[in-house]
Amino acid sequence: MMTAEIFDIERNSYVDGPGLRTTVFFKGCNLNCRWCHNPESKSRGKVFLYYQDKCTHCGLCARLCPEKAVDKTGFRDPAKCTFCGKCEKYCPQRARKVCGRQASLEELLNVIEKDADYYEATGGGVTCSGGECMLQLDFLEEFLKALKEKGYDTAVDTAGNLPFASFERVLPYADHFLYDVKCVTPSLHTWGTGVDNARILENLKRLLALCPEKVIVRVPVIPGFNAEDEEIGRIADFFRENGRPQLLEALPYHALGENKARAMGKEPMVSHAPSKEDMARYQKILKG
Amino acid sequence: MTERIRKLCAFVEKYDLYMPVVKVDYDRSDLFLSDLACDTKRLCDYMLAQDIRLDQDVRLTGFFRFDGSVPADIFHRTGHRNFSKFSSQFYNKPLENLATFEWQHSTADFRYVIENGMEGYLARIEASEAAHKDDPEGLEFLSMMKKVVLTIIKLAEQNAEKCRAAAEKEEGERKAELLKMAAIFDRVPRYPARTFREAVQSLSMCFIFLPDCIGTIDRYLRPYYEADLASGEMTRSEAGELLQELFIDISAHTEHGGNRDDFSAESHFAIGGYLPSGEDGFNDLSRLIVESLMEMPINKPQITLRWTKKLPFETFRYILDCERNDKLKRIAFVSDEPRIASFMKNLGLSYEDACNYTMVGCNEPSLQGGIWLGGCTSNIARAVTDTLYGREDDLLKCRNFDEFYAVYEEELTKVVNRIIEISDGFNFARSKDINVLSSIFLDGCIENARSVTRGGARLALSGTNLMGTTATIDSLSMVKQFVFEDQIFTMEELLAALKADWKGYEEMQTLILTTGKFFGNNDPLSDDVARRFTTSLHTLLKDRRNLFGNHFLCGCLAGYNPHYVWFGNATAATPDGRNAGDPFMVGAGQSGGRDREGLAALLNSVAQMDPEGILCGPFVCNLTLEESLVRDDAKFEKTARMIETYFKKGGLHVQLNYVSREELLKAKADPAHYAGIRVRVSGFSGTFVNLQESIQDDVVNRTVEA
Predict the structure, then answer these.
(1) Which residues, listed in sequence order, are joined to residue A125 by a DSSP beta bridge?
(2) Mean per-residue pLDDT for A67-82?
(3) CA-based nearest residue to B184, from B289, B44, B61
(4) Would you say B626 and B704 are in contact if contact means Cβ atoms under 8 Å apart?
(5) Are A221 and A236 in contact (CB under 8 A)?
(6) SS3 A41
(7) What is the pLDDT of residues B594-611, one digit of tens each?
């Protein structure tokens, strides 16, 4: 049976495309954004998050762990841990989390079906997000195909750093592409994400030429990275030259990823949410 | 809004629209009569002695209040001697931490009043006298009804004379207006109304004889409204002005400045819903009713929209839009689909009767011309505690959840039987009084020659409001999940933890609270338990009748009184992680952060919890939404579609709050600066800072769906 590696399923999303949506978060990404709000999604395989600030050292995890991989203070021995998730499931403080698991097509379709009436009523559907969902292309193609067979609206949330052939495989089954444009200046992109953006922008140009009505562009506005009128202006120029997507919106930075990164034992890039006034100005610049 | 209505609104904000009561020095020799004849004579004397308002530019008048010196209407029950004695013993004073006496609600058949007038009642009384010729008690009751009907006719004649006398002292437009008012009283309520204005005047005057609910006015006033618009007798805005005055009159019936003056449920009615033809009944008059009310700065009446599958989304969206812009929070929503089906299946009503219901009081369903003889609020979580604290030996033998549930069901049966006994006791006590005045207006009392207090009404719904419904579902779910399915702890450990009120078992309690599959998350485990519980209730109640022969329906409304707090305070710890003495949650929507899967999941759970429709009585589902889901236009569109979908999936009721938690906490701390915040409570709305603290806490602690 075909499975995907995912790290979350979110029902009731008002923000991942049109209408009410269920968003499936695929694991693995080929960008390494400094501000990533889902740092647990970057790698393939299971990741353990431990929120020290929430832990009260109650010792329940130690008592329940079948591998004796956790001691009473909550410390986890990575060599012994099998990521069974028992300590997460019963942690009273929600201080422990195992991210990453295999999900079958059938399981995902069952969850999605629960809210089918709400998708229909609101013009919503299913969004495949991540990580970079297009990295699990074989599954994604089958998944989108199955969703379309059931009549669901589908969206692919992507950073676009893939061969265009990947897009061609999902194009027939994707109603929307939620396409992240982080910046236009190549050196800045490399600094912020670890990769060059030539292929990302080229893919976007081709999508805009092929199916502009499917493209929803989202620009994350990150102070300390791209939150400058000049850079946002360059993004606006890009669309002036290459065609308008169906929707072009600026999304403010939020700090959700910072705690998660710390829970993974990593130091995050710390930024802050732009002011409402700044966001309004960036949005205006983008609109041209 | 016209200047006249604006002034009237300003007047009622400061003063009582109703004239001061005229005390009556009753004739001592009345005591030579039978109790019923004495009461009726004095009732008539009282009615004829009262003043009516003719100043303030009113166009509708004829209303007054009763002072308790005679048995008057069935809503307030002033003057009902036995009721007063009984109420002082049982109102808000539960028996056995199981059941407490509460109010009843009813809706006069104002359609009949308007279409047939008092003459229609006289004819019916005469026909009934013939049918009861061998029933002296019935005949005496009917003759008292006739006296009261004749007094109402006389009262209208007096009103006409008072209008003419007042006209003598006026000039110009006001003089003409008073003469017109006199001419209207010459006609109604004695005879059938011919115009919209006559119909509204008839309604305004007769409302005081059962001042609870005006019912389905967008149905019975509609023919007059449409005819007058078509003939040019009246414009749409004139009709709106008249409705506004009617709303002022009925809301002013609640004593000015009294403790209930702030609550919207004091005069509640429904619009829309299925017509007997099977079509949706929302019409231009329904829209005018909403428009007229939204213009006015008065906190009553409250309107419920009856949603049907045939209601266009645009109409639903329009009312929801009015609701989100209404700072006074006067609109709630119910669906006809489960309720009408339940009325037909569980109460045996015809479709025609079933679709003729309205919402009254906080959120009670009542048929036009019928009564919601609830009057009993009970603690259904008693069955859980009786099981866990009283059946230890049996529980320790249970090998699976089915065996556990069988023990629970035995206790539930005992609890339901006892609730019915107590409820019958309450109703028996009520029946010691005879009510003449309101009985006239309740369908069946004339034909049965019997007071509504004694089961005279044809359309009577009986039932109980269940406090602790969610605590029951959650407690059963936790037993299933932790003891039997996942086997995280044993029954013995759970019972020990409960007995210790979780002391020494805090980890277990936290584990339950944080990882339990609570109701409202659309989890199959708790959703199945919810359905199993409501199905058990249905099985226990479907063949039962109260002492008047009425079927039962349940609800989960608390009304003005925080019964969920009081019952919770007297209830031991429960497996849902609740400590002994903690309040229960109110209504069917989840709260306290346990519904973690968001709005669609919550709505799915609630919509599917009651396949048999046994909770189609006064059911309440509170939704507390993050403000942007309502304020942001694009998100509001999605929210509106989601609520409509909830109704399509079987949801029965919804009322919305979207003031932020922070704002409410600030209001609690600094009432003076937040005096204007209105919130939906348990079927009604009230000013937040004036609510009892326990109710404030409940509103603050409801989960915000974002």
Answers:
(1) A21, A153
(2) 89
(3) B61
(4) yes
(5) no
(6) helix
(7) 777 878 888 999 999 999
Chain A residue numbers with beta carbons less than 8 Å from the beta carbon of B600 are 11-12, 20, 114-115, 118
- Contact between A118 and B510 using a beta-carbon 8 Å cutoff: no
ipTM computed for the complex:
0.78
Residues in A whose CB is inside 8 Å of some CB of B read 11-12, 14, 19-20, 58, 60, 89-94, 114-115, 117-118, 120-124
> Which of A92, A94, A118 lies nearest to residue B507, judging by beta carbons?
A92
Compute the distance between CA of residue A141 and CA of residue A144 in angstroms, rounded to an integer.
5
pLDDT at A31: 97
Helices (H) and strands (E) in chain B, counts: 28, 16
Residues in chain B: 706
Strand, helix or coil for residue B444? coil
SS3 assignment, position B113: helix
3-state SS class at B372: strand
B267, exposed or middle or buried, with CB in 10 Å at 0-12, 13-18, 19+?
A: buried
pLDDT digits (tens, 9 = 90+) for B454-469: 999 999 888 899 999 9
Q: What pTM was estimated for this model as a whole?
A: 0.89
Structure token pair of residue A150: 């059931």
Q: Which residues of A touch B642 (CB under 8 A)?
A: 20, 118, 121-122
Confidence of residue B683 (pLDDT cuts 50, 70, 90): low
User: What is residue B482's DSSP assignment?
Assistant: I
Contact A118 B642 (CB under 8 A): yes
Smallest Cβ–Cβ distance between B649 and the set A12, A91, A117 belongs to A117
The token pair that represents A101 in the structure block: 């698991």
List chain B residues with CB under 8 Å of A12.
Answer: 597-601
Contact A60 B507 (CB under 8 A): yes
